[in-house]
Give the backbone structure.
Amino acid sequence: MSVNRPLNRGLSYLIDDYIYTNSKCTLYSYITRYIDLLEARPEQIKLRQEYFEISERISNRLKNGYCMVILNIEIDLLFYTYNLEENMISINKDLKDYCNKWDFFFNRHKERKLLKVILPAQKRFLERLFNPHTPLGYKYGIKKRDELPWNESI
């Protein structure tokens, strides 16, 4: 299964959860971690618990009869490349390329969005800080006045 086709729904739900959790890792490592959790044995209680937390978050967002079993099958088919003639399974390299490109665009968009929010907020704060007609500006002015040395001159 190639990633070049339109984004499958299973991957889109996983990406939504990646964004929702504000994960610090890359998308590919998040998907790899999800596959590890999915393939965890029943005796690996910590991994199973983490998988159940993620699957509960995702299952709350599933729509139109879509279920976790279908999502997990789609993610598995996307992550691995199956060659049934030679009885081989390998990791899909196209998915890693796709995730790297997705991370690049997502991080660039996140930086631009932060600049659009932070710079105007900083500008408004500075305007209020130095405006003596606002409570913040008045208190700041008094504080700076009290910090100045007052020498009496004759």
Observations:
- Confidence is low (pLDDT under 50) at residues 1-6.
- The radius of gyration is 26 Å.
- The chain is about 65% helix and 5% strand.
- Residues 9-107 form one domain.
